[in-house]
């Protein structure tokens, strides 16, 4: 964080990058700090059977991402007309209100509604990405996108740790109040320190998104970035329902399962945090397509031994390597998306990317839990491997044949 603030807190896009990095950090932090104990908090809102509690917790978790997937394209269209800064303010403001309101709620159905509203009005991170992608110099885009990615990753890593401590020390509701307050701080810093040079576009002057895609020089490359967004998120979240159970199996029921499960869950994020900014600089010199291919190949190679691992130390090490592949893939596909998107459609295209990411957050845990329950925990890694291979195949194909010959 010190490096970000020290190197980038100047006027222009560098200052925006520093402030938006903080906003992405707090957004990731606020979203993740209440997740570990959300089912326990729901359990305090009524008398539920285990089955009811599982259904209600799953619904409360999934509705945020479902709402985000459905509504994001509409917000993207508005972002192209009004600018990305106002969309960041909209997302931060609503998140501050809804998270605080959840802290006061006494009814599980109101909690679910509030989480749905939170998802429907979300979009701080993808609009911050679109703003930095637009403003950063062409030879600095990889570095800028890699640096911005570390903000969300850092917040997502620290959120569960701080949230768990607050819940144990002050009760579940304290985490919601603090997260709401921090999002208010993000709202204020975005108002006063983020400046966007944006010329509003009239609704009648906007090109339809179908026309935008038809006129792209490499539409398949852009579609490949959407698929990669979905696969990266699904791969990261598919293990969530079974990680502690698989760790318990590897430990044969002995040892500190909860602590080691936390280390396993955090390992990929730590690797991404360490390497993402560096990978961004490499992208600026080597090119995003090559780094994307290398990152996906690395993920495939890491997943193969993960299927057969027998030791929890191997599990942590391989998950760390998997995070390094994400550190290459995430800024690479974001840079490719930036370079292949026309300026008048940035908001819509980045919002479509957010929709695919949200779908990955829903499909990953759902498929992971289903497959694990039918064929065992290791099958989840097989699922992830298949997704990564399909993604790699399409990305390579799209780079070689970026547009249909008939439309060329």
Automatic annotation (TrEMBL):
<dbReference type="InterPro" id="IPR036259">
    <property type="entry name" value="MFS_trans_sf"/>
</dbReference>
<feature type="transmembrane region" description="Helical">
    <location>
        <begin position="174"/>
        <end position="195"/>
    </location>
</feature>
<feature type="transmembrane region" description="Helical">
    <location>
        <begin position="87"/>
        <end position="105"/>
    </location>
</feature>
<dbReference type="InterPro" id="IPR011701">
    <property type="entry name" value="MFS"/>
</dbReference>
<keyword id="KW-1133">Transmembrane helix</keyword>
<feature type="domain" description="Major facilitator superfamily (MFS) profile">
    <location>
        <begin position="16"/>
        <end position="403"/>
    </location>
</feature>
<keyword id="KW-0812">Transmembrane</keyword>
<feature type="transmembrane region" description="Helical">
    <location>
        <begin position="20"/>
        <end position="42"/>
    </location>
</feature>
<keyword id="KW-0813">Transport</keyword>
<feature type="transmembrane region" description="Helical">
    <location>
        <begin position="380"/>
        <end position="399"/>
    </location>
</feature>
<protein>
    <submittedName>
        <fullName>Multidrug resistance efflux pump</fullName>
    </submittedName>
</protein>
<feature type="transmembrane region" description="Helical">
    <location>
        <begin position="257"/>
        <end position="279"/>
    </location>
</feature>
<feature type="transmembrane region" description="Helical">
    <location>
        <begin position="54"/>
        <end position="75"/>
    </location>
</feature>
<keyword id="KW-1003">Cell membrane</keyword>
<dbReference type="GO" id="GO:0005886">
    <property type="term" value="C:plasma membrane"/>
</dbReference>
<dbReference type="InterPro" id="IPR020846">
    <property type="entry name" value="MFS_dom"/>
</dbReference>
<dbReference type="GO" id="GO:0022857">
    <property type="term" value="F:transmembrane transporter activity"/>
</dbReference>
<feature type="transmembrane region" description="Helical">
    <location>
        <begin position="216"/>
        <end position="237"/>
    </location>
</feature>
<dbReference type="Pfam" id="PF07690">
    <property type="entry name" value="MFS_1"/>
</dbReference>
<keyword id="KW-0472">Membrane</keyword>
<feature type="transmembrane region" description="Helical">
    <location>
        <begin position="291"/>
        <end position="309"/>
    </location>
</feature>
<feature type="transmembrane region" description="Helical">
    <location>
        <begin position="315"/>
        <end position="336"/>
    </location>
</feature>
């Amino acid at each position: 964080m010190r490096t970000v603030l020290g190197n980038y807190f100047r006027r222009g896009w560098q200052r925006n990058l520093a402030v938006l990095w903080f906003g992405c950090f707090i957004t990731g932090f606020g979203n993740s700090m209440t997740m570990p104990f959300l089912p326990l908090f729901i359990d305090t809102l009524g008398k539920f059977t285990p089955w009811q509690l599982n259904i209600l917790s799953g619904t409360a978790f999934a509705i945020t991402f479902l709402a985000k997937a459905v509504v994001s394209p509409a917000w993207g269209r508005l972002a192209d007309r009004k600018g990305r800064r106002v969309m960041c303010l909209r997302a931060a403001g609503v998140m501050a209100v809804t998270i605080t309101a959840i802290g006061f709620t006494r009814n599980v159905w109101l909690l679910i509604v509030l989480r749905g509203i939170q998802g429907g009005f979300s979009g701080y991170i993808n609009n911050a990405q679109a703003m930095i992608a637009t403003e950063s110099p062409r030879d600095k885009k990889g570095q800028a996108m890699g640096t911005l990615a570390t903000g969300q990753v850092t917040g997502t890593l620290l959120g569960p740790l701080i949230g768990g401590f607050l819940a144990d020390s002050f009760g579940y509701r304290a985490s919601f109040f603090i997260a709401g307050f921090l999002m208010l701080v993000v709202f204020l810093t975005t108002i006063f320190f983020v400046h966007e040079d944006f010329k509003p576009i009239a609704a009648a002057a906007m090109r339809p998104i179908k026309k935008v895609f038809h006129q792209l020089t490499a539409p398949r490359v852009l579609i490949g970035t959407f698929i990669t967004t979905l696969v990266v998120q699904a791969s990261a979240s598919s293990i969530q329902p079974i990680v502690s159970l698989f760790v318990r199996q590897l430990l044969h029921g002995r040892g500190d399962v909860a602590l080691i499960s936390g280390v396993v869950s955090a390992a990929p994020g730590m690797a991404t945090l360490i390497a993402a900014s560096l990978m961004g600089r490499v992208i600026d010199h080597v090119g995003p397509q090559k780094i994307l291919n290398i990152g996906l190949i690395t993920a495939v190679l890491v997943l193969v031994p993960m299927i057969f691992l027998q030791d929890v130390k191997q599990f942590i090490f391989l998950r760390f390597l998997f995070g390094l592949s994400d550190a290459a893939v995430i800024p690479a596909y974001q840079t490719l998306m930036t370079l292949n998107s026309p300026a008048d459609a940035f908001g819509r295209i980045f919002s479509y990317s957010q929709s695919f990411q949200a779908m990955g957050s829903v499909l990953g845990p759902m498929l992971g839990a289903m497959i694990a329950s039918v064929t065992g925990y290791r099958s989840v890694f097989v699922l992830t491997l298949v997704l990564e291979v399909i993604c790699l195949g399409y990305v390579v194909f799209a780079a070689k044949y970026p547009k249909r010959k008939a439309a060329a």
